Amino acid sequence: MYTLIHTDSRFYLLDKHPGVSFHRDGDAPGLMEALRAGLGDEALWPVHRLDRITSGLILVARSTEVARALGEALAEREVEKYYLALSDRKPAKKQGRISGDMVKGRGGAWRLAPTQANPAVTQCFSHSLQPGVRLFLLRPRTGKTHQLRVAMKSLGAPILGDELYGGTPADRGYLHAYALRFELDGERFAFIQPPGCGEWFTGDACRALLAQLGEPWTQPWPGA
């Protein structure tokens, strides 16, 4: 369900497994319920969330004060978040900025509108993993529901395994919260967690490409 990556007196950092929901689903406990039981600590507050299909890094505060501080940093866009995604479709553009208002669609899905009243903003780079499959490095500059999944769909390159948005069926949804950078109480933190499951994510080609790319914050990201 999750792997504990880092323990601090103020927060925990988890690697959420794909297919795990934050909330109880029938007889299956949700992520926070399982975490509180596993750590024997009821006083836990998630700082942000990930979709069920998405794996990767999640910050969990150990006090309301820390939850408030990190939540405010998120709202002010002072927490840097970087994601990995795979697609087996050719994108309309291989890198750049994706921006537009999020509009509710059918069946729980969203779509990207051409308007810019309160846009979801995402920056991206992509690299060929093998013929017909591309690895995307994504940096969301806003925090909208399904933002990255919709951004990829808008490029004509839905995420592999994300069938809600037209992705090709696969052994998992290939979206992973890869890295975080933030400051807390004047201390800087930086974490990178490669994906630990999924045939494509754990293959030699993907691991080699990630090693070649290095730290995601060193990439020449265009202005938001």
Automatic annotation (TrEMBL):
InterPro entries, sorted: PsdUridine_synth_cat_dom_sf, PsdUridine_synth_RluA-like, PsdUridine_synth_RluA-like_CS, PsdUridine_synth_RsuA/RluA, RluA_PseudoU_synthase
Residue ranges of domain Pseudouridine synthase RsuA/RluA-like in the record: 11-153
Domain of life: Bacteria
PANTHER family: MITOCHONDRIAL RNA PSEUDOURIDINE SYNTHASE, RNA PSEUDOURIDYLATE SYNTHASE DOMAIN-CONTAINING PROTEIN 1
Protein family (similarity comment): Belongs to the pseudouridine synthase RluA family.
Name of the protein in its database record: TIGR01621 family pseudouridine synthase
Organism whose genome encodes this protein: Chromobacterium amazonense
